[in-house]
Every structure is written in structure tokens, then in C-alpha cells.
Specification:
Number of strands: 0
Number of domains: 1
Order of helices and strands: HHHHHHH
Helix content: over 70%
Structural class: mainly alpha
Largest sheet: none
Distance between the termini: 57 Å
Shape: globular
Radius of gyration: 20 Å
């Protein structure tokens, strides 16, 4: 196995696992399960941030073309979404875990729709999944699969990646809005629907 791949593969695996766990949070209908899953997510997020920061810092400190330098160069694209995770997602996951803990006294306590809407907020799953895609994009060339190697493929590959990120964001926003609407009192939900403009 190539040396940069041995560095990048664990980073990509942790971010992918965090993205999958975050995507499943809104489907949990029990407060205790939601609290337990947010605990797993916190561990995965902090591990991903620590690994990413360690690789980037090691690449900055070493001079030359070592495996860490090549791995850090590949991970530079993941630095921006990882920063969003550190600034926004970590705090939201902590709030979500505390909120779920308030309802988790009994094993079968349902998770309120408001809590599930908070779990579906785009700033939880979207930055994690974008970071996972960027880390995976860094690991693929190290594995010998580089979709950006040929100029004829670079443009379509970037377009597909951007459209994929937009589609993920729209999906999270729609799910969040649907759950947030369920959390409203019935009269408020009806008036909110009535106030929407009619699209023909």
C-alpha cells in the first residue's frame, strides 16, 4: 500500500463514518437512542478533526516530498469544510446531545419533532459529508484512481462534485424544514402553510 494512502485512508474512513452517523440522526425516534448516537458522532468528529489537523500540521512542518507532505497536499481541500465542522457542527452536536439527554430518562421516551428537526439541521450533516467527500477525493489519487488527472475529465468531475454537494444541501434543508414544521403547534403549522406563496 502506498504510504500517503496509509495516512489518508483512516482520515477518510473517520469522516465517512461521521457523515453516515449524522445522516441517520433525524430518523431516530427515541431520545435515548438519539443521545447515544450523538455521543458516537462527537467521538468521530473530534477524531476526524484531530487526524486532519495532525496531517496538515505535519505536512507544514516537514519540507520535501515525504508521504506526509503528499497526504497534507491532498487534504488541503478538506481543510475548509473541516473548519466549518469545528466552528458550527461541534457546537450543534453538543447542544443536540444535551437536549436529547433531557428526554432520555426512560428508554422509550419519544424524541420530540423539534429535537429531530435540530438533528436534521444542514449545519450538522452537510459539513461532515462535504469533508468526507474531500477526504475521499484526496485518498483516491493515492490509491491510483485520479479523476482529475486528465484535463478532459477535470471539468465534468468538478461539475459533478459541485452538483452533488448542492443536492446534499438541498436534501438536508428539505428534511429539516419538514421536521421543523411538524414541531410547530397545529394552528401555527396551518397558518405557516397558508402564508406560503402559491406556485403554479
Amino acid at each position: 500500500m502506498d504510504e500517503p494512502l496509509t495516512v489518508l485512508l483512516p482520515v477518510a474512513a473517520v469522516w465517512l463514518a461521521a457523515g453516515v452517523v449524522a445522516d441517520g440522526l433525524p430518523r431516530l425516534d427515541r431520545a435515548r437512542a438519539l443521545r447515544r448516537r450523538t455521543g458516537w458522532l462527537s467521538v468521530l468528529v473530534l477524531t476526524g478533526l484531530a487526524l486532519t489537523a495532525a496531517v496538515l500540521a505535519a505536512g507544514l512542518q516537514s519540507a520535501g516530498t515525504t508521504a506526509l507532505d503528499r497526504a497534507a497536499a491532498g487534504l488541503t481541500l478538506a481543510a475548509a469544510p473541516a473548519l466549518v465542522v469545528a466552528v458550527c457542527t461541534v457546537r450543534r452536536v453538543r447542544w443536540l446531545r444535551a437536549g436529547a439527554g433531557a428526554f432520555a430518562a426512560a428508554p422509550d421516551t419519544p424524541a420530540p419533532h423539534g429535537l429531530r428537526a435540530a438533528a436534521a439541521h444542514p449545519l450538522i450533516a452537510l459539513p461532515l459529508q462535504v469533508t468526507a467527500l474531500a477526504a475521499l477525493g484526496a485518498a483516491l489519487p493515492a490509491a491510483g484512481v485520479d479523476p482529475f488527472a486528465r484535463p478532459a475529465v477535470t471539468g465534468p468531475a468538478i461539475t459533478v462534485a459541485v452538483l452533488g454537494v448542492i443536492a446534499i444541501g438541498v436534501r438536508h434543508a428539505l428534511r429539516h424544514n419538514r421536521l421543523a414544521e411538524r414541531a410547530l403547534p397545529p394552528a401555527t403549522a396551518v397558518s405557516a402553510r397558508a402564508g406560503r406563496p402559491l406556485h403554479v
